[in-house]
Amino acid sequence: MIRVGSRLPVRSAAGAVLALAGAAVLAAPAHARAELPLVAETTVVQDGPATVSDVRWVLPAEAAPGDTVELLLPEHAGGAAGADWISSTGVVIGTARLDATGRLVIELTDAVADPANRAGEAIVRSTEEVGPPIVTASSSTADATLRPGERPGPFYGIPDRTRGNKYGFWADEDETRARWVVEAPRGPWDVLDIVDRVGPGQRVDCAAGVSVRSAVATHPDTGALVDPVDVPAERVRVDCSETEVAVHVEPVGDEIVGVALDTLPDAPSTEITNAATFEARRTQPGEPVRAVGWESLLVEQPPVPPTAPPTPEPPLPEPPLPEPPVAETPVPAPPVPARLAETGSEGSAVSFAAAAVGLLAAGWTALALHARRARGRA
Fold first, then answer.
1. What is the predicted pLDDT for the residue at 92?
2. I need a surface site. Which of 45, 165, 197, 289 has the fewest CB within 10 A?
């Protein structure tokens, strides 16, 4: 088998829901058809951090190009859109979409008219991944004016706890000491910085100390902090001067940090002002991101071996050239009597006999001559 597919990131706030089941598929008609039932064998397994559904599917016989079929997949597969749905032959038969509930919708194309393209197997894989960290910053300011004779009370109303707040009151009856309270935005925060700067006509009483406390609850009617406690010293740094107080706190949980400080006005019962700034920042883990993708399993065709070109036969060897004839030196034949010069196939025996008679006669003549010479010498 070979695989083709795509990977689509999907944002998800919930974990994957696993099931081992067969999934029923219903067809949403594109030609006013009745629902086309399709049964797909679906199994779900956990592969490390990934959840995997193996879906084996077959289109019903009446499904035609332009129809829409639906497959209910496990919820982990939800939320992808716009990918090709591919049959086991490797042919794209439609465009598939997944909603957040795992409902798969496939719009069929003309390719389903070919019977070879009406079945297949798909692997749907989803993995929960953590997205990039989320950095949240808060920046706000708050100011307050303290007038002669003012006292704190419920008339201040319930403050907005998403930003910093500030109020002041006289700490003694003679109004020679003002107390300022600044309250930071509700946490959590990784880092919180509060800077309180006093207005003209007063100075910070650093000798009286700076209080840093926090509370997790507020009064439902007045918004005042309920049962505040001191923030542990290892989480706090305080810098104090006559003109300002700087407080650094880290970390801050789900709580509201309040800072209290005293100032001494130049003249008792004098209208004075004060302002504070709040800077807070936190970094939280990114939202879970579900990466969903599917792969279609293709039927691998057996490879066709390449056809080798025929090997040419070697040429036959050229026959050797005949050697030139060697001239022979003629050997002279022995002399033949004149009477034997003529030969033939019919008269050869007679000629031979005649030659024999002639030789015999010559011999007798020679013998006779020799005998005559012998008698003469006698």
1. 93
2. 45
